Amino acid sequence: MADPVGAPSCLVAGLDLGSTSLKMLVTDEAGTEVGAAQVPTPWRSGPGGSTEMTAEALLEAVWSLIGAAAHETAKVSPAPIAAVAIAGMAETGLVIDADGTAVAPGLAWFDPRGAGQAAAFPPGIRDEFAGRTGLPLGAQVSVAKLAWLRDQGVRLAGRRWLNLPEFVAGALGGRTALELSLTSRTGLLDQDTGRPWPQMLDALGLDETFLPPLVDAGSPFGEARAGIVPPSMAGARLTVAGHDHLVAAEATGGLPADHYHVSMGTAEVLLRVIDAPLGYAARRRLADHLINEVRHVVPGKHVLVAGVKTGLLLRRVLQTAGIHDRRGRDDLDVAVMALPYEGLLPDDAIEVSGARNDDGVLHLTVRTDGVSPAEVFGAVLRHSNAEISLLIEAMDRELAPAVTATLTGGWAGMAAVQRARSQVLPALTASARDQETAYGATRSALRLLSTTPSKIGTAP
């Protein structure tokens, strides 16, 4: 493939494997959008909140996505897509056999299965888990899902693990490897060493061969195979950009240390970049508040990641109100903004719970008449604000308080969301970009096209 660096006709693509939808954005080198597409994430739901995805459904959705994005791009430019970077959700992944075939579905990060297995890990694992991995132990972490699969009869020994972005990279023609920021969220890595935690692997009946080679975000993964992708993508260089929220945070360059980046999709993630691990004791303290300290997509850096399930609750409010399209959401936004931030009902008229990162079940208690969807939506935003305030207090005990904040993600365009978050986040600005993660992935793809790629965390 001819070196396209410096050629204005060079195109790059970013894929975002999100919890609500899969997105693909194609841009030129300057970051101008050329084509885009999205398809629903192909979850299948079961009893008790169980949610999973088969590898076949995932790949069918990815092929549909790539085809649609390539078609839209071709309307604007005949140039080939020279590089593709894949970002996506963490915790959800697939166990593969020696041929790269998935042997079980991927369980959603918000699927409650695995909670019993996490509670049944040996006492030493439970005691050290947060300090070693930087994660609170619960159903969300991948090791809990792996233990659940094991207990359902899925053989793990002799097989390997891939997070969803690496699995898709492999299906496109890339090599088998694991990106560090995604794998950092499995519960299988020691954050201080960056290597697999042997005791955790042993508790699952595994050894280090379960994990393919660990690589930094943005590392070369190979090339897209002709015949699998549209002709305009054949031979495109492949990489894995990393965990979606972190990719969004670095979309336009490095984050200042005193800044909050808030990425609000199905999960709402508040993060801060740090130059080095905070250490075992600090990780245990932070985990008490469900705050993670894990590897960043910028090599050598770490992040504090605090999450609430605001987007999941807001989505369920919309669905309950019969709102299923953008116009309906926009109309609701207008209705919420017509109310004061506190609403017009008595303080105890609507009680909400469910935003904590270990919850996600929308509970509403309504004590009065006159409750509209706008009042409920506003009440959920206030409830999640209260949870975010607790997370900020816990972070501020470990680091100097942040002084600025940026709001991104699928919900960030709503005026009601911006108004609510300005109550708890300092000097808040909102991104005008609809696809922050996919855009960040395009910047990672662009770096592949240079023989001396700029370090992630700087603008390409």
TrEMBL record:
Top-rank taxon, per record: Bacteria
Limits of the Carbohydrate kinase FGGY N-terminal domain: 12-232
- Tell me which InterPro entries the record gives: ATPase_NBD (IPR043129), FGGY_Carb_Kinase (IPR050406), FGGY_N (IPR018484)
- Coiled-coil intervals in this record? none
| Matches recorded under SUPFAM superfamilies | Actin-like ATPase domain
Q: Which GO terms describe its molecular function?
A: kinase activity
Is Nucleus among the key words of this record? no
Q: Does the keyword Kinase apply?
A: yes
What keywords sit in the KW lines? Carbohydrate metabolism, Kinase, Transferase, Xylose metabolism
Tell me the protein family, please.
Belongs to the FGGY kinase family.
Recorded hits in PANTHER family, A to Z, give: SUGAR KINASE, XYLULOSE KINASE
**Descriptive protein name:** FGGY family carbohydrate kinase
